[in-house]
Structures are given as C-alpha cells and as structure tokens.
Amino acid sequence: MSTNSQNSYPLPQPTGFTKKFWDACQDKVLTVYACKNCDHTFLPGGPACPQCWSPDLVSQPVSGLGTVFSFVVYQRTYHPAIPAPYVVALIELEEGPKLISNIIGCAPKDVEIGMSVRVHFETKDGFLLPRFTPLNPDNKSEG
Amino acid sequence: MQSAIIAGIGHTEFGRLPERTAFDLEVEASKRAIEDAGLTPDDVDGLITDPGPAQGILDGITPHYLALGQYLGLDPAYTGSDILGGASSIAIIQRAVLAIEAGLCSVCLCVYGDSALSTPGSYSYGRGDDAAFGLFGAVGIHALAAQRHMHKWGTRPEQLAEVAIAARKHAAQTPHAQNQRPLTLEQYLADKYIAQPLRRADCCLMSDGAAAVIVTCPDRAADLRQSPVRILGHGQASSLSTWASTDHFDTLPAARCGPQTLARAGLTPNDIDLVMLYDCFTIVVLMQLEDYGFCKKGEAGAFVEGGRIGPSGSLPVNTSGGLLAEGYGGGMLHVIEAVRQLRGVAEQRQIKTVQTALVSGHGLGMNTHATLVLGK
Ligand SMILES: [Zn+2]
Q1: What top-level class would CATH report for the domain B5-121+207-229?
Q2: How far apart are the C-alpha atoms of B336 and B321, rounded to whole Å?
Q3: Which of B60, B64, B225, B357 could form an S-S bond across to B51 if both were Cys, CB 3.0 to 4.6 Å?
Q4: Where would I find the H helices in chain B?
Q5: B5-121+207-229 with B134-199+230-375: one CATH topology?
C-alpha cells in the first residue's frame, strides 16, 4: 500500500527472502531458489522450501526462457511512472517456477498465452528488472 | 444439536458517503441488526468483524474488533477479526457458528464495514514487488484468470457481459442499490478496458457502507422478532501457494469447499434455490458456477447466455445486484439478501419458492474462499 503513494518508480524492496533474486538481476542473471534437500525450485524466495520446509536454499541461475502462462493488458494507469497500455504477464519458466513480469518488444495485441519468451533486463531508476521479449519475431510459437 | 441461526440483519445505505466513517457506519449496521433480531445490545456476547481494506486492516496498535467493541460498549465472551479479503464476511459468520456451537457465546454480532469509496487508493494498491511490473489492484489478478478462461474454453466478452447485465437488472429491483442504471450489451462492448480483457463493467463497485448479521443458537428462537434462517452448512478452502499451484488461475478453492459444504448440508447444487456468488469481477461468477457444480467446467459462458442468471432466468444469481451493482458490502450484503429471500420479504425481487440458498465469499489474489448454505 506504500508503493503508489509517490511518483517515483515503484521498485522492488528486496528483503532477506528475496535479496538473492534481485541481487542476481543486478548482474543480469535470472535465478530461482532451489532446495538443497529436495531439489524443488521456486519463486518468490522465502524462509524455507515450500515443499519440504528445509531452510537450506541456494540461488540457481536459469535459462531465462519461458512461456506466457497468462497476461493482461493494463489500459488504466495505476502509477504515474508506469503509463498504460502495458502488458503484465505470468511467465512460466522452462525450469518450472512462475513469476510476474512484463512482455516488451511486441505490440500488446500480439501477445498470446503459450508464447515463448526470453528474459531481457531493463534499467529503471538504476535498478535492473527482468522483463521478457518474444523468442520468435513473428510471435507465433505455441508453448 | 440444531444448527445455528441467523436472527437479525442490518445495513446502512451504500454509496459515496464522505461525511461518514467506517466505524460510524458499522455502529449503525449493528444497531439495525440487533433491532431486527428483537434483541438488545445487552444480549450480545460475541463480536467478530470483517474490516474492509480501506481501514488499513489494523492501525498497528488497536485491532478493529477492539475499536468497534469500544464504540459499541461491548465486553464480549468471544471476539476477533478475520482477514480473508472477500471471504471474510462468511468466515466471520463461520467463526460465530463454531463459537456458538462450542458454547463460547450465544448471540454473536458479525460486522463488515468500510469507507473504500471515500478513501483514495484503497483498492488500487501495488501488489508487493510485482508493482515494479505494474501489477496493481485486484483487477490484474482476475484479468489473468479471465484471459485463461477465454483462451482455454473460448469464453467470449458477450458471456462476461451477461453477468454484468444480469447484476444491473437485479439491482433495478433493489431500492438501495448503488448502480441501478441499465446496461445493454452494446454499452458493455463499448465500455473502456481497465485491465484487458476486463472492462470497467466487469469490475465491482467501491462503496462506503456497513452490514451486519446476528448469529445465535436455536434455543433463543422464542426471544426473536423474525423467523430464523438456519445455517445448514459452512466451509472454507484456500489456495495460499498462489501461482505455484498449477491450477490457481483455472480453478477456485470453491471446487473443494463447495461440494464439501453442500454435502454437510445434505444437498446438491440442484437443491439450491438461490445462488449468491461473490462477484468482485464477472469472471469469478463464471468460475464459481463451474466450481460449485451448477454447470460443467468450461461451460459457464454458454450457461449464462440468454439471461439465465438474471431476474427472470432459471437460476437467478445475486438477486439484489451483488458487488457489481448493489454495492461493495464485503460479501455481507449477499448473506443479507439470502436471509431476506428465505424470510420471504424480498419484495419485487422475491423468488417464489426459496427453501435453500448458497452464499460464497472469495478473497485476496483468488487465495481464499468460504461457503455458507442457508435454509428456512
Ligand atoms: Zn525442499
């Protein structure tokens, strides 16, 4: 509830649980959390593995490839630093975990569920955010 | 043991009420509910509350139930607040039933209230770190679900429109409804998108208002002013792992607690005369019709065609207009309308033969769900 109270870009607020993910993004590396006990991979980070509750977690780089699980085209601006229209998508990474991001590099009307995408890091106020672009220029791939 | 009963209902007006506070509205709704029951504040020994989001949930020091209890001068035997988003209103009634059945209290006041319309930004908050990608409000999450329903099942905008149009038609017969303006299919299709594929008309109202019910035990029946409405079953299910769960956007937790609650009541979907579904967005009505078993998975779009859930349809849903048109009552207005229908006092909205009603609550990022089955 605090992020939209000012006009500056609503950047992530890395905590102890999410810091490794966001720190790796600053090196343009997309990572997931992996459990050393049961090998489960997940996002977002937390105090333990949500599958076996082990606290023994590592940050694991992933391919940066995924598919669009679903998406929404915001036509109303909610934050002055993020003017509509823009595409928010739930990306299913090749390695399994899902994350919320944006689809850039194509028109909103060309985004489809199942479309193959690849991570692309973009700077906002000096902070690197993982966004996704269509893998194929014709955007016709089906996942 | 006989099931707990709803003995009193009360609510304020709903709409833009900038001169009122949430607490002031909650006190009025509480007073109306206790008077409707034919009881007095001295009879109340339970207080459970559902504070709307604009109340900041808690101010960090004084829990909502404590502040309201202080304003009402109550020293209850049992109290608390539940924070399950839109499932809270049913969750607090559920807690009241459990407390009454356990003998912890005998007359429980359950209150929802908020001043969301007069509190800027109350529903347009950024969703944690995902605000960095522009994920704001509840609408984005529900648009993700709508997009999948349309992709997977071929659901069309005209079918979402059926839900919005039916809500307005019901509201036109509800004197206190906040939005009684008729809506045509043409107007729906021309309406602006908020979070595509959801248009403004797919989104529920925001309201200032409060609503309350009195839950009590059947042995108080002789003291009551109204014929009691029985709580035949109640249930709850949640999906807290959010999108890590593979079907989070395709199936609501209603698919679990719906059949369970109906079974506890000894009923099936066919036995339900009145359906009151939490309708923060039109898509959620379609998903619930499927997940509760009123139609098959993926077929809700076709099911609602031809005005089926409207006032003269074969399965009227949300006869008072719901969150989409009556007003945002947290889910408590849904319960109150079901009670009115079961009492037979719904005036021009009255469904002829109502013996049973199913009421649902759905909350947060599609994480929580609660079900109430009521009967005469
Ligand atoms: Zn594990």
Answers
A1: alpha beta
A2: 12
A3: B64
A4: 22-37, 64-72, 88-101, 139-153, 157-171, 185-190, 254-264, 282-291, 300-303, 322-325, 332-343
A5: yes
The length of chain A in residues reads 143
Chain A partners within 8 Å of B281 (Cβ)? none
Q: Distance between CA B72 and CA B42 in Å, rounded?
A: 10
CB atoms A11 and B143 under 8 Å: no
CA of B246 to the centre of ligand 1 (A): 18
User: What is the reported pTM?
Assistant: 0.96
**Contact criterion met (CB below 8 Å) for B372 and B231:** yes
**Confidence check on the interface: ipTM exceeds 0.90, yes or no:** yes
Q: Domain segments of chain B: what residues?
A: 5-121+207-229, 134-199+230-375
Number of H helices, E strands in chain A: 1, 8
A window 12-31, beta carbon within 8 A of B:
12-13, 18, 22
A86 touches chain B (CB under 8 A): yes
**Which of A72, A90, A109, A131 is the mutation pick for testing B, counting most B CBs within 10 A?**
A72
Go through the domains of chain A in sequence order and give each one's CATH number.
13-61 (no CATH), 63-143 (2.40.50)
Tens digit of pLDDT at every position of chain B (376 positions): 568 999 999 999 999 999 999 999 999 999 999 999 999 999 999 999 999 877 765 556 788 999 999 999 999 999 999 999 999 999 999 999 999 999 999 999 999 999 999 988 777 888 899 999 999 999 999 999 999 999 999 999 999 999 999 999 999 999 999 999 999 999 999 999 999 999 999 999 999 999 999 999 999 988 899 999 999 999 999 999 988 888 899 999 999 999 999 999 999 999 999 999 999 999 999 999 999 999 999 999 999 999 999 999 999 999 999 999 999 999 999 999 999 999 999 999 999 989 999 999 999 989 999 999 999 9
Q: Among A2, A4, A15, A70, which would you mutate to test the B interface (most chain B Cβ atoms within 10 Å of its Cβ)?
A: A70
In whole angstroms, what is the distance from residue B305 CA to residue B255 CA?
Answer: 22
Distance from CA of B296 to the nearest CA of A (A): 22
Cα B307 to Cα B313: distance, rounded to the nearest angstrom: 6
Q: Do B132 and A129 touch (CB under 8 A)?
A: yes
A90–B contact, CB cutoff 8 A: yes
Measured N-to-C along each axis, helices B64-72 and B22-37 cross at an angle, to the nearest 10 degrees, of: 60
- Has B328 been annotated as catalytic? yes
The architecture in CATH of the region B134-199+230-375 reads: 3-Layer(aba) Sandwich (3.40)
